[in-house]
């Protein structure tokens, strides 16, 4: 496992033919990395610590909000817990307290799913003060953060490229009745 971590960190070339017990490196040069490895946690422990569900955590990773310390294969404990806790601190610093019944707010994941705006972009806007952020006091961690619905709507509208600017007419993209699909300009009706 340590060989994979050191190879991923660039200590050894990926195609190094030497056996694991024949690889030598300067421990002094990589002392910070070596000291950090025992503190890494698995994704389950990270999700529990920051209060994120599995799907929320997957979006945080895919959008680069949280990044594993290594991409070495077979390494399960690849996350630095302090990164997740620092994210919560940064979000909490700009969040306003909300009650569970507060209207006009939605979870970050719900906003992403509803409007297709990447989680990383939503979080960047919240941290920069360009998007209102609230914290449901009755919920723990990441899943308790809420974003204004109208703010996400405006963000989605501004970040969506105009069809007309791309030389396309919006007509083919309007909603179709359920069961109707368009293939090569022809309506295909599903019999399901």
Which features would summarize this protein structure in a list?
192 residues; alpha+beta; four-stranded mixed β-sheet; two-stranded antiparallel ribbon; 8 strands; 14% strand; elongated
Task: Characterise this structure.
With 192 residues, the chain is of the alpha+beta class. It has eight helices and eight strands, in the order H-H-E-H-H-E-H-E-E-H-H-E-E-H-E-E. It has helices at 2-8, 31-36, 43-50, 54-62, 81-94, 108-115, 119-127, 149-159; strands spanning 40-41, 79-80, 96-98, 105-107, 133-136, 145-148, 180-183, 186-189. It has a four-stranded mixed β-sheet. Strands 1-2 form a two-stranded antiparallel sheet. Helix 3 (43-50) runs parallel beside helix 5. The protein starts with a helix and ends with a strand. Residues 162-177 and 180-188 have low confidence and may be disordered.
């Amino acid at each position: 496992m340590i060989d994979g971590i050191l190879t991923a960190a660039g200590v050894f070339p990926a195609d190094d033919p030497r056996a694991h017990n024949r690889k030598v490196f300067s421990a002094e040069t990589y002392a910070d990395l070596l000291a950090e490895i025992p503190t890494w946690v698995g994704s389950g422990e990270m999700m529990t610590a920051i209060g994120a569900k599995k799907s929320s955590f997957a979006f945080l990773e895919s959008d680069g909000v949280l990044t594993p310390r290594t991409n070495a294969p077979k390494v399960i404990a690849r996350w630095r817990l302090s990164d997740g806790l620092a994210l919560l601190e940064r979000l909490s610093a700009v969040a306003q307290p909300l009650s569970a019944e507060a209207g006009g707010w939605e979870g970050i994941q719900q906003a992403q799913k509803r409007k297709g705006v990447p989680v990383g972009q939503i979080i960047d806007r919240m941290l920069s003060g360009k998007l209102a952020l609230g914290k449901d006091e009755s919920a723990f961690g990441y899943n308790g953060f809420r974003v204004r619905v109208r703010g996400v709507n405006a963000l989605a509208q501004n970040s969506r490229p105009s069809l007309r600017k791309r030389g396309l007419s919006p007509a083919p993209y309007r909603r179709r009745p359920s069961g109707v699909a368009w293939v090569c300009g022809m309506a295909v009706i599903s019999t399901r």
